[in-house]
Design a protein that fits this description.
This protein is of the alpha+beta class. The chain has helices at residues 18-35, 49-57, 61-65, 85-94, 97-100, 139-156, 172-185, 194-202, 213-220, 231-246, 293-296, 311-316, 338-353, 367-376, 387-392, 413-421; strands at residues 39-40, 46-48, 69-71, 77-80, 104-113, 125-134, 161-167, 252-253, 267-273, 283-289, 304-310, 331-335, 358-360, 381-385, 394-399, 404-409. The protein is elongated. Bound molecules: adenosine monophosphate.
């Protein structure tokens, strides 16, 4: 017997009916983000490896250890995208968007790939939905995005969530903070994990994001970035807070919040769930400013603010059963014989074009089994067609909820069904 094939480790099939929940979430994003002026971008899944090395940062775990990198037949180094912001930044520069519009708002939904250790809510292929607002330096746009996310999660029932914000500064703030971190960790160097010993040299900020317990304990007493912010970053944080307050969006300032990607400057934020079933993977959404990224990739100086949330993690926090998201069957047509099946198929076609979800029994199976299936599908109405109904041009339309039947002329079926479902 041939060996059966399975998905690669950490990569999942999404099947109906579960996909209905995903569609609901994506639909809510599409509708809400449009109101905030976001248009959809679809960058490629594969980019030049250099984009992520320069964009995400070659000292990050994502680029160093987790990327799916390969050589194509032309011997170019390509990588499956580990996130989508770098691709958006590349597209923004490549298409000279800055010269075409002063403010750009993009949103995306797509797969990202990271070779990670698997756990609940942590996969090797996962989906991200995100937004990027380019061209605005003011903190009000940061607040606008956070408020939009809070509204989105409330609307689709992703709960319970908490918003954490911080400001990691940039320029001189970062130099000062970096020096303070090095001074603090240097005496404890031997106690740090191997990765963090390296981070101490490359990017000490990242030690604060380490998941190793001993390092976490050390990091708990490390200097906090807020004490090293200059007037600009401080005013930005105040502006963000004041705007969130004005919108009555609850949040907590978490002075230890840093993010695992190098491009963040100034505002960083996370939306975490307090639901226990996600365990250590409680971060649903991460984002912040990346005011230096576009310029760093060779584009014009462009302030920017963005976020991405993990679709699988958001779905895990939507407690409603999938059945709630599946379009209900309006009419089930049971059939006996080939002639009835043909007529049923034609009748169903007209009803479907009129907007009704219809299921026709195309198989030659007994009536009892057909009505069991109608029940299982949760059909609102049903109709049985056989030779007698074809001959008389009439059939009984049954209300499956009220369990009541009434005769209808087949010629008037569409109107009768629409009236019942209204
Ligand atoms: P990041 O791009 O690392 O800031 O991640 C943004 C969001 O993507 C996280 O908050 C998660 O919800 C999600 N995410 C990141 N990595 C994974 C993964 N390996 N599996 C599932 N979701 C992930």
């Amino acid at each position: 017997m041939a060996e059966t094939l399975t998905t690669p480790r950490g990569m999942n099939d999404l099947l109906p009916p579960d996909s209905a929940k995903w569609q609901h979430l994506e639909g809510a994003c599409r509708e809400l983000f449009a109101r905030f002026g976001y248009g959809e971008i679809r960058p490629p899944v594969v980019e030049h490896t250099e984009l992520f090395a320069r964009g995400v940062g070659d000292g990050t775990d994502i680029v160093e250890k987790e990327m799916y990198t390969f050589r194509d037949r032309g011997d170019r180094s390509l990588s499956l995208r580990p996130e989508l912001t770098a691709g958006c930044a590349r597209a923004y520069i490549e298409h000279s968007i800055a010269q075409k519009e002063p403010v750009t708002r993009w949103w995306y939904v797509g797969q990202a790939f990271r070779y990670e250790r698997m756990q609940t809510g942590r996969y090797r292929q996962f989906w991200q939905i995100g937004c990027e607002a380019l061209g605005v330096a003011e903190p009000t746009v940061d607040a606008e995005q956070i408020a939009m996310l809070v509204a989105l999660f409330a609307r689709v029932g992703v709960a319970p969530v908490e918003v954490l914000i911080n400001n990691v500064g940039w320029g001189d703030d970062r130099v000062a903070y970096r020096a303070a971190l090095v001074a603090y960790f240097e005496p404890h160097k031997a106690a740090l994990c191997g990765d963090c010993q390296r981070r101490l040299v490359v990017n000490p900020l990242r030690i604060l994001d380490c998941k190793v317990e001993k390092d976490k304990q050390l990091a708990a007493d490390a200097p906090i970035v807020l004490d090293h912010l200059g007037a600009g970053a401080r005013a930005h944080l105040d502006g963000l807070r004041a705007t969130l307050d004005a919108m009555a969006v609850p949040y907590r300032v978490d002075p230890r919040l840093v993010r695992g990607l190098d491009y963040y400057t100034g505002t960083v934020f996370e939306i975490v769930t307090t639901a226990s079933h996600l365990g250590t993977q409680g971060t649903i959404c991460g984002g912040g400013r990346y005011d230096g990224l576009i310029e760093g990739l060779g584009g014009p100086k462009t302030p920017a603010m963005g976020f991405a949330f993990g679709v699988e993690r958001a779905i895990l926090c939507m407690p409603d059963p999938v059945e709630k998201f599946v379009a209900p069957v309006g009419l089930y047509i049971a059939t006996i014989g080939a002639a009835a099946r043909q007529r049923a198929t034609a009748l169903a076609h007209g009803l479907r074009l009129a907007g009704v979800t219809v299921e026709v029994e195309h198989r030659e199976v007994g009536m009892k089994a057909q009505f069991r299936r109608a029940d299982k599908l949760g059909a609102r109405l049903s109709l049985a067609l056989g030779d007698a109904e074809l001959a008389s041009g009439q059939a009984n339309l049954k209300d499956m909820v009220a369990r009541a039947e009434s005769p209808v002329a087949l010629a008037d079926l569409t109107a009768a069904v629409l009236a019942r479902l209204a």
